[in-house]
Amino acid sequence: MKHVQIKDMKKEKKSINCQILRELNDELLAFRKKRYLDYKTSESKRTGPGEKGKAVILEGEEKALGEKLYKKEAFNIIASDKISLQRSVPDVRDPGCKNIKYPKELPTASVIIIFHNEAWSPLLRTAHSVVNRSPPEYLYEVILLDDFSDRPELGDKLREYVAKTWPDGVVKIVRTKERSGLIRARLAGAKAATGDVIIFLDSHCEASEMWLEPLLARIKEDRRVVLCPSIDNIDKMSLSYGGTGSSSVGGFWWSLHFSWRPIPSHEQNRRKSSVDPIRSPTMAGGLFAADRKYFFELGSYDPGMDVWGGENLEISFRTWMCGGKLEFIPCSRVGHIFRSSHPYTFPGNKDTHGINSMRLAEVWMDEYKRLFYMHRKDLLGQDYGDISGRKELRENLKCKSFRWFLENVYPEKFIPDENVYAWGMVRNPATNLCLDTLQKDEKITFNMGLFSCQNGASANEVFSISIDNELRREEGCLAHHSGKDVPLENCNGAKSHKWVHDKEKGTIKHKESGKCLDIAGVKSGGTVVVNPCNGQDSQIWTFEHYLNL
Ligand code: LR7
Ligand code: MN
Q1: What is the ipTM of this complex?
Q2: For tag attachment on the chain, is the N or C end more exposed, with fewer CB atoms within 10 Å?
Q3: What is one GO cellular-component annotation here (predicted)?
Q4: What single DSSP character describes residue 272?
Q5: Contact 471, 508 (CB under 8 A)
Q6: Cβ(470) to ligand 1 under 6 A?
Q7: What per-residue string of b and e applies to 263-293 under the rule 16 or more CB within 10 Å gives b?
Q8: For the CA atoms of 344, 347, 353, 359, what is the dihedral angle to 10 degrees?
Q9: Residue whose CA lies nearest to ligand 1 atom number 30
Q10: Ligand 1: which of 125, 200, 202 to mutate, most ligand atoms within 8 Å of CB?
Q11: CB of 181 closer than 6 A to ligand 1?
Q12: Closest by Cα among 350, 336, 290, 341 to 316
């Protein structure tokens, strides 16, 4: 008897608690909804520097100060400080986005903004933009994840600002106990989060109109997608918010740096409309959304990675290889300040991108890690720590091979030593000079150089002659148009990019003009040319490796 009574009392108490909670929740939600609507209705009337995402042009002393501080901050902090923390930004979405109806019932989101010594105004502008442009019924919380900053204003002043500005507690501060680096900082944020979906942002972003709903709706549809908003450029000097469009996807260089590339035709053909999700082989890293539980099922992050770099390709390869999909969502737009350098320290001055990339190559890239080390010979033999946990994860999740990833997700990726007639150093035996990029930026056209052959020591001397008859690097093809010049241009299948190598004679002949690649008396450090074919030693070349196709 007694026993039953206690049980009933407990039940009653529980239901009273629930009632209170529900009322509290309703009140909280009403408060948040009012704040959201107040901002929304006033947004179009806002005036002041930088409103509507316009550029802030400084003059005189302010300009000079902005330029001086640029060295420290890697962006124009004076321009940023002049702009309201709640500024309006333009709606740069595809007009088709406005016709999409999203379900009323959507999962809730925890937005995690990680930072280490971020400047005040971009950090708070990020937080405000999220609260102001996320419907309160979907925004569960914003977590400011402080990775052990030591800028004085990010201590008590920040805590007081947050408590005063968002008394309802929607914005929370979580601080790491030591400098963790962005990877472990994100992990700490994800562990603290309790919403259905987690969304990571860098601490110098601005979320724009309706950025949240398309992400949540797509995850509701398929919990095994990892989604990136389309990233708009916030200019690092003027802070103007520019719609950079959503015409790119992510790729990578074999040196394991991230790259932007045009949407490939097979993906354009697969999509039915310009507002459909865009499948991307990789993500840039900073801005993405995932079902919280799925994020952990998929192996969250490699906690052995330090400070900066590599985690973006690691999560990209892993998502695809282990059964998920990576997509860019054109109707979700978030701005990001692309800074010119890292305005924070790298403890121990370590090359964290290099070491983190070793970890990812060793765990995920199978035999293709050879192409990473071809670019990073300096890393061979370096200690990358224990990766047994990550290897186990790959086993447990029964992930596919890296070859599968290349063939199915990134078929247009050029593999320097596959599907080529020959590759490696391209040597002129008479002079012992080799084709060499001379370390120039290969995204920009330049005339191809020559340098004394480095005998495999330098990735600058690795070229391939592909089965499409391109004499090429990873993205760049040697071309010839007029005069004697041999520029390196972005490969696009053009006739001017086709060459034929005669292994017996040793010539490399430009198909369109019939001219031959020629040293023509140039010294190491000069540029290679074409001349009418003459059978002379200066037109004789050997490749380091020939494949039997
Ligand atoms: O030790 C650190 N602890 C941190 O919390 C170092 C950094 N951070 C924070 C930092 O304050 C910032 O908010 O981590 C965030 C990212 O650092 P950034 O802004 O210096 O990085 P980034 O924008 O130059 O670099 C891109 O690649 C990185 C690889 O590790 C991360 O994935 C970044 O998030 C990523 N940024 C983007 O993807 C934004 C879009 C840009 C592009 C392309
Ligand atoms: Mn950033």
Answers
A1: 0.98
A2: N
A3: Golgi membrane
A4: S
A5: yes
A6: no
A7: bbeebeeeeeeebebbbbbbbbbbbbbbbbe
A8: -140
A9: 309
A10: 202
A11: yes
A12: 290
